[in-house]
Amino acid sequence: MTKTLVTAVAGLTLATIAPAGVAHAAPAERTNEVPVLIGHRGASGTAPENTVAAFKDGRASGADFFEIDVQLSSDGVPFLFHDDTPARTTDVEEVFPGRANNPVTSFTWAELQQLDAGSYFSDKYVGERIPHLDDAAQVATTQTGVYIEIKSPVYSPGIEQVVADELRNDPTWSRLVAAEKIQVLSFDEASNRRFAAIAPEIELQQLTGVVPTRAVVESWATFADSVGTDYRVLTPQNVADVKGAGLILGVYTVNSPEAVQYSLDLGVDAVTTDFPIENQRFLQGQPMFPGAGVEVTSSVNNPAGDDVQPENGEYVLLRNTSAASVDVSGAIIRDAASSILTVGDGYVLAPGAELRVYTGPGTNSAQAYYNGGSVSVLNNGGDSVALWIGTRLQDVFAN
Fold first, then answer.
1. Does the CA dihedral 213-218-220-224 come out positive or negative?
2. Any idea what the Cα angle at residue 343 is, between residues 342 and 346, rounded to 5°?
3. Angstrom distances, CA of residue 325 to CA of 116, 293, 315
């Protein structure tokens, strides 16, 4: 489907298409404006975050950009990794026992290259390595560029100059800059101001958990081109304040089609998602999950009492919406932080049947499966969950 350019502001484009209708989880109404689409940490819903595999998924989606997180190793090499420690997404405890909770920036580049950054996601990605900053440029194109988030700059002193030098001096990066396919962003205002002074020619975004007062937003307009914020707490007044200051407005991390539509209805210009392939389909009026038979219909993140209380704690509700029975044995429910709930053996859902998948302990039945965990998985402030049956992504739900 061909996109028709309708506007371009600060290197970001909005496009118009004629949607054909969405078969899965379709909102009641659709807007004709399609936002700039950014794959979060590459495409972290379908591949291990901040790896070349995720960047390739982001590119394959046809998204306008994929986003990366850059930090500096202890010997000054720019590498791509989100967390402040390597514990969550690598095998660091096996390779470097006792260092799992050390700052990831305390590792040398050679040490980082010894870590497996893919097997936490699935066996398919065993051996994926932590990439160098330049690896992202090798995957990007003049159609799918890169959002470069400077992550925790306090732990990577001098990173602004390192990134600016790469963008200016490396031919692959400079080609993307010339095509207006690079944007630098950070939650750290001081870092953004440093970068703006070093490389004023590069598009710059100020990230924030909550949009502050109009006066603060207007101060950001003196060095930034756009604002990125959490869609869950965004208000119409926030939108008016950002746009009134002459800034582009983006939101993160928008995973379900309903959340994308909600953001569009508020008037945002750009949407960052863990699932760029699927949400690109949604924006083009195509089924997000062709042939899928089981959906996530709700997620109870914060029940009364303890989240993992016996029999009645947090859970995700599955429903078979197809006309045939579906075996969901071994299905995986993965949240935005890659925490996982599973479904045990022997669960076959008849048409219309539902199954509650609990985090905590309880008595298994035809309608409920308990993972027996002792720690909450679902974020009480809102989370997204993806349902996988075998190797097939079946659905994404957000609240």
1. positive
2. 155
3. 38, 9, 22
Contacts of 8 (CB under 8 A, 6+ apart): 14
For residue 354, which amino acid is it?
E
The answer for residues whose C-beta is within 8 angstroms of residue 256's C-beta and 6 or more apart is 25, 384, 396, 397, 398
DSSP letter at 131 equals P
Query: Distance between CA atoms of 338 and 365, rounded to whole angstroms?
Result: 26
CA angle at 44 for the pair 335 and 75, rounded to the nearest 5°: 115
CB-based contacts of 301: which residues, under 8 Å, 6+ apart?
307, 314, 378, 379, 380, 382, 383, 399
**Cα 146 to Cα 21: distance, rounded to the nearest angstrom:** 30
- The owner of tokens 């604002």 is 227
Model confidence at 25: pLDDT above 70? no
> What φ, ψ does residue 332 adopt, rounded to 5°?
-115, 135
CA angle 183, 189, 193 (to 5 degrees): 70
Is there a contact between 93 and 87 (Cβ–Cβ < 8 Å)? yes
Contact partners, residue 284, CB within 8 Å, separation at least 6: 1, 17, 19, 20
Band of residue 153 on the pLDDT scale cut at 50, 70, 90: very high
Confidence of residue 34 (pLDDT cuts 50, 70, 90): confident
- Residue corresponding to tokens 């590459």: 42
Residue 4 has pLDDT above 60, yes or no: no
Question: Can you tell me the distance from the alpha carbon of 250 to that of 266, in angstroms, rounded to the nearest whole number?
Answer: 11
Alpha-helix residue ranges (DSSP H) falling in the chain? 52-60, 92-95, 109-112, 133-139, 159-169, 171-178, 189-198, 214-220, 236-244, 257-266, 276-283
The pLDDT tens digits of the residues spanning 220-258 come to: 999 999 999 999 999 999 999 999 999 999 999 999 999
Residue 149 has pLDDT above 70, yes or no: yes
Give the pLDDT band of residue 390 (cuts 50, 70, 90).
Answer: very high
Buried b (16+ CB within 10 A) or exposed e, 153-167: beebeebbebbbebb
Query: What's this model's pTM, rounded to 2 decimal places?
Result: 0.91
Q: What is the three-class DSSP state of 307?
A: coil
